[in-house]
Amino acid sequence: MAKLNFLEKIKVGLSKTRDVLTMDLNDLFSKKVIDKDLYDKLEELLIAADMGPQFTYDLIDDVKKRVSRHDLQNADEIKKVMQERMNAILQKIDKPLTIPRGKPFVIMTIGVNGSGKTTTIGKLANMLKSEGHEVMLVAADTFRAAAVEQLEVWGTRVGAPVIKHKTSADPAAVVFDAMAKIKAGFSGVVIVDTAGRLHTRVNLMEELKKVKRIIARELPEIAPEILLILDATTGQNAVVQAKTFKDEIGATGIVLTKLDGTSKGGVVVRIAGELGLPVRFIGVGEGLDDLRVFDSGNFTKALLD
Ligand SMILES: Nc1nc2c(ncn2[C@@H]2O[C@H](COP(=O)(O)OP(=O)(O)OP(=O)(O)O)[C@@H](O)[C@H]2O)c(=O)[nH]1
Ligand SMILES: [Mg+2]
Q: Rounded to an integer, what distance in angstroms lies between the CA atom of residue 142 and that of residue 102?
């Protein structure tokens, strides 16, 4: 029962993509005949949902082959093929983040401005606290005015302390202080908020690399999670950003935010196919409770069932 509720919640979060995909697909497949018009409409639909050209053309090729072998008799069987192919791709990036208990762990967020880093930190802190982890937040966004205060609001909401310096301080120095807390015995999860600027700005990348270096230097025994926060509403631009951050900083996982606000939820398929980085969580709203652990099976079901 709890599982169904969970799935229902994801469905609501993904409703914009789901509406486009399921309504139009159902409409398309109600025709029962497989012809050129159906292929064209299917292509249009998948591209509109931002599944990416690779998935779209591979699927259509596959379907065409099956049709010519008479393996596929009517249009609604295409949906099954699509589901299978989506599952196969998404399974590769379905690796939930495992956080050790009773041992310190570090999560560093990275991403362009407005992608949802600080909000995700608040939601993640809430999730981790409810699972019994100790959580400490680190205000290493010393760039944007009011960034520290924004993180403090989340800290108060979830009951997590915030390590901070003043605006325009060196982010690496703030992180150094947080690492010192771990050395002094803090054994929970430390989540680092960082500044967002355009991914093309060299100085941001250098700043983030420095923060990462400080973590590695101070706590070489911890393999930190470098969590790339991507705004799903930006569709294919999210993929471009992801490539840059992956190459420059070396992300270890992705959170795809704002899936509730877009019909481009298919971008997850694209990220899976083109980046191969695990998607750890998805954001489906602005509230404390609007973060979900990414689960490929649930995701496909929420989109297509
Ligand atoms: N609908 C929706 N809105 C979200 C989600 N995640 C974040 N937001 C909103 O996106 C906006 C930007 O979020 P922030 O968390 O401030 O983004 P940021 O990456 O920290 O931004 P900078 O600190 O400026 O780099 C806020 O208005 C959030 O409420 C989500 O999953 N769904
Ligand atoms: Mg922020």
A: 30
Range name among 27-31, 88-92, 111-115 with the lowest pLDDT average: 27-31
Q: What secondary structure, in 3-state letters, does 124-169 show? A: HHHHHHHCCCCEEEEEECCCCCCHHHHHHHHHHHHCCCEECCCCCC
Q: Which residue minimizes the CA distance to atom 1 of ligand 1? A: 285
Ligand 1, closest atom to CA 122?
15
Residue 14 has which token pair?
Answer: 């993904």
Residue 295 has pLDDT above 80, yes or no: yes
For tokens 């050790």, the residue is 100
Strand order in the sheet with 291-293: 162-163, 135-140, 189-194, 105-110, 225-231, 253-257, 279-283, 291-293
Distance 41 CA to ligand 1 centre (A): 34
Q: How far is the CA of 122 from the centre of ligand 2 (A)?
A: 10
Ligand nearest to the CA of 233: 1
pLDDT digit string, tens, across residues 119-157 = 999 999 999 999 999 999 999 999 888 999 999 999 999
Q: Tell me which amino acid residue 57 is.
A: Y
